[in-house]
Every structure is written in structure tokens, then in C-alpha cells.
Amino acid sequence: MSTPAANTYEALNEQTAIQLAVQLNLFPADAQLSCREIGDGNLNLVFHITEPSTGRGSIIKQALPYVRVIGEGWPLTLDRARMESEALKIFARYAPDYVPEVYYTDEQYAITVMEDLSHLTIVRTGFAEGAVYPLLSQHIGEYLAQTLYGTSDFALGADARRELALQFHNPELCKITENFVFTYPLIDDESNDVEPGLQQVAQQLWQDQTLLLEGAKLKRHFMTSAEALLHGDLHTGSIFASDEETKVIDPEFAFYGPIGYDIGLFISNTLLSALARQDNSRELLLHHVLTVWDVFSTRYRELWQANNQEHFADVPGLVDDQLQHILEDTVGFAGSEMMRRVIGLAHAKDIEAITDDAKRVHIKSSAALLARDFIVNRGQYRSAQQIVYALQQADQGVDITHG
Ligand code: ADP
Ligand code: MG
Known about the structure:
The protein has 403 residues and is an alpha+beta fold. Helices cover 50% and strands 13% of the residues. Helix 10 (259-276) packs across helix 12, helix 12 runs antiparallel to helix 14 (357-376) and helix 14 packs antiparallel against helix 15. Adenosine-5'-diphosphate is lined by residues 38-44, 46, 59, 100, 114-118, 122, 249-250, 252.
């Protein structure tokens, strides 16, 4: 792993973060500034610098040379800050409305200075509090089509795509995903977090050879398909929103991977929030799943027709074949993500918040069996409607384990 030269890297604190903001002229020279470290993620420091008299703010995000929630015992490359700021800048080329503006980056200090989005709410938090964000799936569908098509072979041509992929060699962060999403939840690993009521379901899944085989294939696919520049961690904790606006943050897991991974993560986390809802608003979250696929696939086709470097682009059926392949991947990766959110280390906050044990365990079992269906039967999915239908079946206790 790469380590910083000892004399160049230093972790910021609230005072030095203000000094940096002053040096960078982020505020008028005479501004009175205050600063709070607001990082609630697992990995990095996030400083919110504000000028209370005007309400203006900036964000300074800094990577630590280790995993924040674990400490120095788990070193992690500082290069992830470069991945994040480079990815934000590239995504801004293709989907400027949906990413924060980057004002400044410093590779040595692993710092990204960016637009303050504090007027928005993290979707994972908002979903847990009952929010719906009516434009979320429209915006995310556009973001996904524009960034994923825009960085693909079809838009860039193979030479430029290969050149760009070289910048996003991100082995340490990819390895975290390979372990915690694709490996540990499918085996009886000590890192898993399985509550007692779910033990039987977990044991059954860990002995399921079909699930292991299909899960292993998805992992291979994640590791070897350099289709587009992915965000790489597009769960609802990486999205800020309001009723009008949507912004995607935190692409430190960016790398060239299979397009369906980003779409699958968004869909999976939205489905988990839908499962956690007991009222009519569940339908609105399920509707996001239909809309995100609809907007993504429509926009992808438009972009395909408008600009395509592939010699065979006009061959009838090619774009349909691509979209069917992306849908299958989306369903499979949604399954891998869902499995890790009920069996792996990092769980879905809104499901964990359900205090009725029987209800919580029922939802988790439904999610685990739905995840299995997505992984094993991904090739049978032809529409987003089928995804929603599968969730409804799973929630009603229909046996979907033998498809
Ligand atoms: P990590 O990489 O550690 O997961 P995130 O990028 O997810 O860090 O940021 C952690 C938290 O910091 C977010 O959940 C959000 O509350 C806050 N945050 C991050 N970026 C911004 C921003 N541009 N504007 C306002 N708050 C932000
Ligand atoms: Mg994060």
C-alpha cells in the first residue's frame, strides 16, 4: 500500500481546517469562521467550515491513513482521496447537476475541498425518517446513464476508456468490497452480524451450493469487467437529497467495473428501506425502483444513438442485448448488496431500528431470501417490474427459494 511521506501528511483538526480555508480564500478575508468535524462515515474526516454571519459554508474532506472507525490497526491507502476527487471531477463532466463541485484538491494531504451540501439530507437518514424524495429516482437514473454511458467504450472509444481506467486502479478499496459484499456474507465468517432469530436462515444459505456458485460468478464479474467508471459505493448513504435536488457524494470506491453494480446498489438499498416501511409510502419507494431503471435505460439508449464509437453500434439488437445484460447484473448485484445488509457487517439502519423482534426478523428473512433469488435467478429478470414483484412475493412469505 502507498504511505505518505511522514513529513508531508498531517491530519487536520478544526483549527488547521479553518487555516486552510483562509489560505484558499474560500471566504472573504475578514470572515469570522467556525468549524465542526461532522464525518459520520466509517473512513474519513469531514470538516464543515461556516461563516455564521452569512450562513455560507465549505466542506473539507480528508482521508486518514487508516480506517476511521477501526483505527491505526487497519491501514488504508490515502490514495482514496485522489480517487474521490478525480471521480467527482469526471462525473461533473457528464452529470454536473448531480455531484458537488470540487474547489481544491491536495494529494499529499489527501484533501478534497468541495461544495457544502448541508441544506440537503442524506437519503438513508431521510428514508429512515419517512421521507420519499419524489425526484430522487429520476435524478439518479439520469446520473447513472450519463456517468456510466459517458465513461464506457461506446462513448469514449476503447483507447480513451483504457487510458482513463489506468487512473482508477483502486485495489485496496475494491478488496473491501470483494470481501465484505461478495465473500463473507456467503460463508460463515466471523465478521458477519447475524441476529439469533436469523441464524437458521443464514445457516441454510451458507450451505446452498447454487447460491455459492452464482455469488462466486458475480464476484468474478465485479473483479474483471471494466465497463465504465463506477461510483463503487452508491448506497443511499452516498446520496444527498431534498424534494428538488439530488447530489451523489463519496466516490472513493471508484474504479472501472460492471455498470450494473452502481444501479444494483441504489436499487437494493431502496428496496431495504421499502421493506422497513409499514405504511402506504412503501409503494412510493418501490416506485423509485421502477423509475430509476426506466430513466436509466431510456437515457442510455438516447446516448447510445447520439454518440457511439462502436463499429457495430447500429447492428439491430445490440443495444437491447447490452441493456438486458445490465439488468441481469443489476439484479444480481442488488442481491449481493442485500445479503450483506442483513447477514454481513454493515446493516440497513431502518430495518435495525424496528423494535418488534418478530417483525424485524421477518423482514430480514424476506430480504435474505429475496437476495438469494436475485443472485441465483438474475438471468430470468426482464423488467424492473419483476424486481418489485419479487419483493412483494418475498414479503408475503411466498417461497422463492426454489427458482
Ligand atoms: P466517508 O467517506 O467517511 O463515508 P462521506 O463522504 O460519506 O464520508 O461523508 C460523511 C458525512 O459527512 C456525510 O454523511 C455528510 O453528513 C457529511 N458530508 C460529506 N460531504 C458533504 C458535503 N459536501 N456537504 C455537507 N456535508 C457533507
Ligand atoms: Mg461514506
